[in-house]
Amino acid sequence: MESILLRCIIQLPPDFRLQDVLSFHKRDQLMAAERVEGYTLHKGLVWQGHAACLTINFHPLQAEAILAIDGSPADNMSTSLDQMVRRMLGLTQQIEEFEATYRHHPEAGPLIVQHPGLRVPLSATPFEALTWAIIGQQISLHAAIAVRRRLIQAAGMQHSSGLYCYPDAAGIEHTSEEQLRQAGLSQSKTRTLIELSRRNLENLLPLEEWTINLPVDEMREKLLLVPGIGPWTINYALLRGYGWLDGSLHGDVAVRRNLQTLLDHPEKISEKYARDWLEEFSPWRALIAAHLWAMKSLQA
User: Fold this and answer.
1) Contacts of 32 (CB under 8 A, 6+ apart)
2) What tens digit of pLDDT does each residue of 104-133 get?
3) Boundaries of each HhH-GPD domain copy (predicted)?
C-alpha cells in the first residue's frame, strides 16, 4: 500500500510535563489505538478519510511528529499536522498568566506549586473529544475506556502498523446501530453519536472549522441541539477538543471529590458549591479542574 509521510518539529517549553501527555494516551492498557513506548507515542487516527498513524518522538525541549498515511490524501497539509500536534500537547494554552495570577492563592496556590506548568493534553480531533465525552457520561472511567476500545474496533479502520484508528464522523455513520450497541453504548448514547456524526458530515456542526476562531457561544448553541449533549459534555469537549480553559466542570465527580479533599470540607461538595467556587477562577475554570484531577493523577 502506498504510504505518505508528513513530518514536523515542535519546540517544547522547559516546563513541559511529558508524563501528563503519555499518561493521557495510555489509559487503555490493551493499546488498541494508542501505544506508548518509552518517550514515543503512536496513535491511530483518520486523516482525510485515510487510516493514519501519528508518531511523536519526544526529546529534551523538542518533539518530532511523523504522520504515516495509508493511501494518498487530497493534499499533504503539513501545517494542519503542526497545528494538531500543538493542540494535542497543550501548547496553545496560555497558562503563564494563570500561574502568575493564582500562585499565591490560599487554595489554588498549593495546586500550582504541586503541578507547575500543567497543561491539559487534548484529543487529536474535536470529534474524538466529543464522542469520548458522550461515551463517558454517567459511567466509570474504567468502563468508558472499555466501551471506547470496542467502538474503535467496531468502526474497523486499521492502519498498516496494526493500530486501530479512532473513527471520524464518516466512520461512525458507516457503523451500524447494532454494532454500536454491541460495543457497550446505551441506546440513547448510540443515537447521540449517530446524530452528532450526521450533523458534522452535513457541516451543521463544523467542528474542525471552529478550531480557528473558537466561537464558544455558537458552539454551545448548536451542540445543545443534539439530543443527549448537555452542558457537562460541551464543557469537557471544549477542554479536551479545543483547549478552551473556561468551561465550568462543577458536574464532574472527580472535581468535586478532590475539591472536598483540597478544602478539607466535612461533607460532599454539591454541584452548586463547586460551580460557585470555580467561578472565581474564570477564565481558567477548566484549568483549575485539571489541577484538581491531577491531585490523584486522574486522567478523565
Assistant:
1) 149, 152, 153, 163, 164
2) 999 999 999 999 999 999 999 999 999 999
3) 135-297
- pLDDT per residue over 144-177, tens digit each? 999 999 999 999 999 999 999 999 999 999 999 9
Residue 27 belongs to what domain range? Answer: 3-93
Domain with residue 19: its CATH number is 3.30.310.20
Cell output for 118: 500543567
**What dihedral do alpha carbons 53, 58, 59, 60 form, nearest 10°?**
150
Number of domains the chain contains: 1
| Pair 33, 112: CB distance under 8 Å | no
**φ, ψ dihedrals at 185, nearest 5°:** -80, 140
Domain contains 243: no
- How far is residue 175 from each of residues 32, 165, 170, 180, 284, measured CA to CA in Å? 18, 14, 9, 7, 37
For residues 54-62, give the mean pLDDT. 97
43 within some domain: yes
* pLDDT of the residue at 3: 75
Report cis status (omega within 30 of 0) of the bond before 231: no
